[in-house]
Amino acid sequence: MKNLNNFWVVLSHTYISKVKRKQFITSTVGTLIFILLMANIVPIIEFFVSLGDDDTKTVVVVDETNQLGELFVDTFQTMHEDTPIKLGEHDEEGLKEQVLNDEIKGYVLLQLDERGIPQATYKAKNLSEFGTQEELNSTLQQVKMVYVAQQMNLSGEQLLLLNEPASFDQEALEEGSKTQEELSQARGLVYILLFVIYFAVILYANMIATEVATEKASRVMEILISSVSPVTQMFAKIIGVGLVGLTQMIIWLGIGYFALQKNVEKMTGGFFSVFGFENASISTIIYAIVFFLLGFFLYATLAALLGSLVSRIEDVAQIISPMTWLIIIGFLLAMFGLYTPEATFITVTSYIPFFTPMIMFMRVGVLNLPVWEPLLGIAVLIVSIILLGNFAAKVYKGGVLMYGASSSLKDIKTALQLGKRNNS
Amino acid sequence: MALKLEHVTKRFGKFTAVDDLSLEIPEHEIFGFLGRNGAGKTTTFRMILGILDPNEGEISWDGKKIDYSTSPEIGYLPEERGLYPKLTVKEQIVYLARLRKMNKKDALKELDNWLERFKIPEYKTKRVEELSKGNQQKIQFIASVIHKPKLLILDEPFSGLDPVNVELLKTAVIDLKNAGTSIVFSSHQMGHVEELCNYLCIMHHGKTVVNGSLREIKRSFGKKNLMIHADFDLDFLQEFPGVTKAQKTAAGMHLQITGEDVAEAILQQIASRGMIRKFELEEPSLNDIFIEKVGEELE
Q: ipTM score here?
């Protein structure tokens, strides 16, 4: 197969010349640094927090009620052991001075209001440190609860009963439906993967359009198409750039994964639980890869088609703007659908080829779809890629021979005419 | 191994770029295509290469249709010169040679020979954008011949080169021909075609107006040029039977006549009138033929 041979020559040339380029190395390393930073975000934040740490400084409690001070301090310490707290003398002027001299963090005036309910005023140099205020506030609420209960002569058991939160459960009735917790985790993962798909498709589709336009602009195209058929060349280029993208992804994901593994314990709690790193669903990841690849091929084919129409690199951005809009609209719909995945228009748009990679992926990640739905989406994509690939090959064949100043979609017609075998 | 075009027509929409073109280009020869811009030369070349498909007619090389399986046998220097600006000379020549089924080792060896010949071996590892235009053109030429094609198509190979480089390239072309390569080339410059080609065609509006061997074309053109320098008035020759064109020059007159017999008659007429300093009968130049056939000057 002579054509197959040339296919490999073009593919390897595309791949090697791209990977060797400075741009590739800097963008790979740059993003890698960003990933490593993000993976280590918890230790980094902790480091900076520890730099400006105020926790060594004490909060002084001035007890004007003469009965609640100790309760307050004890309660505070059981709830927030990190921040030192102590009872202090009733000497506001002195305390004020200590605060301004940075000797203590601040002080709390503990009082009873006219109804006999505890109240407190916190005074500090400034109120920028929100955490301490919250801690003091929650302590006060606790103290008030205990104090009022005592006033009402409630027993310990009664107090416990009062304190106990009522349980609120939710249950999805549809079988196999995701629980709320699972849903929010799925959402987080899908959210991140949607971003990856979105950026990767834009980045690599752009790369292909630029590559084709560069070959036209430098007029090397005419020699190329006299040795390799435009169709072979186009597909070799798409797969070559696809491999460049895959290489970059593997470097990023591989190193990112190891970096995350190291810090995964720190990232599982609190804020990060939203992103569902704890039990990332294997099927979601697999769907992400499948939809990324199909999305890439679909958009890359479109990019090659559009790139073949222009003869100057400056015109690339303009000619591919319709494609960029398609990606952005698909992305926005998918983002919107993340919170209303059952909406009819989301279901409908998930079968529109240029939107499928993102919207169908979002649906399959968040909802519990019957298997035929994503499979139908994949089928829609494959058929679209074949149809578009065929069409693009025809345009490309003529497009690469056109050297005009114009760069509009109307050129597609001219290109088709030029590339046609028999147009008599 | 002849290249044959039979009734080839190429239309772009309503515009007919090449109109019922039939040619036979002999092997191991240099065949020249002459014509103004838009005459259909580049379109013809692109059809020969299989980049464009003709609407009608057949093109065959060695009896078979030219397609991508024959591309290793064909070399092409396009009119729109182009190389990858960011790649080194070595990288791109090897890439283009590999696309024409030459292996890397042979390509590198051949590249060294050519660079040596063009006296630019130091450019092997330079990026193309760093080279001067003339040197880029040499690299472009190397790219079209590196894989030792049997059929070489050169579209305006000498345009934009200084006279020294034109000579260098011309010698290379002649050597390739002597080594057995069949060469097709186009040019605006009559001089180059007259010097290099034994066979040629003149294209005009997609048609050939003249086609055949140079000697044959000149002979069948019939007309000849006559240059006369004399000390007396030659104005009466403008009306002389057999003179188709007359142009006064500083020292005498430049005539176009229909044949040798006319020259003889003129000589008899003027021999008795006084001193004749020059009387020279010339073959018509290609330029004369071109103007006559196409009806306008070639720029």
A: 0.75
